[in-house]
C-alpha cells in the first residue's frame, strides 16, 4: 500500500487513528500504511503520547466529587451565590453543616444532633405549606388587602407582636395569613406568592426561649425549608424553590423581624 | 429544577476538567464553571434541541473568551483572540519538569480548545465543530497544527524519555 492508493491515507485518517475513531477496516489499512512510513508512524506515536499524557494529567479533576457550590440546586436562578456578608463565619459554617446533614430528612425521621427541637416545627410548617399552597379558593384566612388588620389579628391571637415582613425585594407579595394549631399555642402562617405563582409560607410560633440559632435547611421532596430561632420565636420559611432563593428570603425575614424588635426596644 | 440537575450535573466533571486545562488555576476554573452553569440555567428556556454537552462547552468557552477580553481591558474581536497563548500559566511550573499543560498553554486558544475537546473530552470532530461554531475541516486543520506544535514541545522537553521512532523533523 502506498500514498498513491486509490483511497489514500489522509491526515484526517491519522488523527482519527490517534483518537481511536476509525472503524476496524480502515484502522487496519492505516496501520499497514504506517508500517511502511516510519516518519509518519513516529508522528502518530508522539501524538498518542501527548494525548495520553494530557488525559492522565487532567483525569484527576474529573474524578473529584463535584463541589457543593457547583450543584445545580445551589445555583438555580441565582446570579450571585454567596453567603450573606453580614453572617459570622461560624454561622455560615453551621449552615453548610445543616445543608449536608438535612439531606435525608424527608419521610424517614429526624435529623440527629443538636438543634433537633426545630425538627417537629419544620415538619409542621412543611405540612401546613403542603395543605394550603394548593388551596385555590381560600389559601389564607385573612387577605392582605389591609395588612394592618392582619397584623393586629395575628398579634392578638398569638399574644405577641407579629411582624409581617415585606418580601417584595425578593419578588414575593403578601397574600395573607392564617392561624394554625400548634400544641398549646397557635402558630401564624403568612403566605406570599411571586409573579410565576410560586407560593412561599412563613410559619412562626413561640419557640425555645433565648438564644439565636443559625439557619437550618431541610428538604422534603420538592419542598425546601429554612428554620431558625430568634428571641423566643421560631421561624420556618417554606417554598418549592431552590435553596439560594429561599435563603435570601430567610435572610430578609430574619433582618426584618429582628430589626423590628430592636426598634421596639 | 430537578430535571435540570439530572441533565446538567453529569457534565460538570468534564466542564471542570476543560476549565482547568484552560485556566490552570483550580479556583478560577470552578468560578468559570459556576459562571457557565448560571448562564446555562438562565438560558435553559431558550435552548433549542441538540447536543447538551456541546451547548454547555460552548457556553464555557465563550465565557472564558469574554473573561480574557475583560482582563485585557480592551474590546477585541474573535480573530484577535486566536493568538492568545498562555493564560494563567504558573511561571514556576515551567522551571521544573515540563508539564504537558505547559505545552498546550503555549498553543493559541483555538488550537488548544480543539485538542482538549478531541483528545481529552472524547468529542467527535463534528461535535467540536459545533462547540466552536466552525466547519469540521477547520477543526481538522487546527488539530493538525496543535499536534505539530506539541510534537516539537515533547522533543524539547528534557525530562521526557525519547522512545523509538520519536525523532521527527
Uncertain runs of chain A are: 1-5, 78-118
Largest interface: A-B, 43 and 47 residues
Please provide the count of β strands of chain B.
0
What's the gyration radius of chain A in Å? Answer: 30 Å
Low-confidence residue ranges of chain B:
74-97, 157-169
Total of domains of chain B: 1
Computed structural class of chain B: mainly alpha
**What is the H level of CATH, i.e. the homologous superfamily of chain B?**
PhyR, sigma-like (SL) domain
Radius of gyration of chain B: 17 Å
Q: Class of chain B in CATH?
A: Mainly Alpha
In the residues of chain A, how many domains can be counted? 2
Structure in words:
The complex is a heterodimer of chains A (265) and B (169). Chain A is of the alpha+beta class and 265 residues long. Chain A has two domains: 11-63, no CATH class; 84-264, 2-Layer Sandwich (Phosphorylase Kinase, domain 1), CATH 3.30.200. Chain A has helices at residues 11-18, 24-35, 38-63, 72-75, 89-101, 118-133, 147-158, 243-264; strands spanning 142-143, 173-182, 185-193, 199-206, 216-220, 223-230, 233-239. In chain A, helix 1 (11-18) packs across helix 3 (38-63). Chain A is rod-shaped, with a radius of gyration of 30 Å. Chain B has one domain (2-156): PhyR, sigma-like (SL) domain (Butyryl-CoA Dehydrogenase, subunit A, domain 3), CATH 1.20.140. Chain B is built from nine helices and no strands. Chain B has helices spanning 2-8, 12-23, 26-43, 52-72, 78-81, 100-105, 109-120, 125-132, 136-156. The longest helix of chain B is centred in the middle third of the chain and has 21 residues, at 52-72. The radius of gyration of chain B is 17 Å and the shape is globular. Chain B starts with a helix and ends in a 13-residue tail after the last helix. Chain A binds chain B through residues 11-12, 15-16, 18-19, 21, 38-39, 41-43, 45-47, 49-51, 53-55, 57-59, 61-64, 66-67, 69-73, 75-79, 81, 222, 242, and chain B through 1-2, 4-5, 8-9, 12-14, 16-17, 20-21, 26, 29-30, 33-34, 37-38, 41, 99-101, 103-104, 115-116, 118-120, 122, 124-125, 140, 143-144, 147, 150-151, 154, 163, 165-169. Chain B: InterPro entries: PhyR_sigma2, RNA_pol_sigma-70-like, RNA_pol_sigma-70_dom, RNA_pol_sigma70_r4_t2, RNA_pol_sigma_r2, RNA_pol_sigma_r3/r4-like, WH-like_DNA-bd_sf. Chain B: This is RNA polymerase sigma factor.
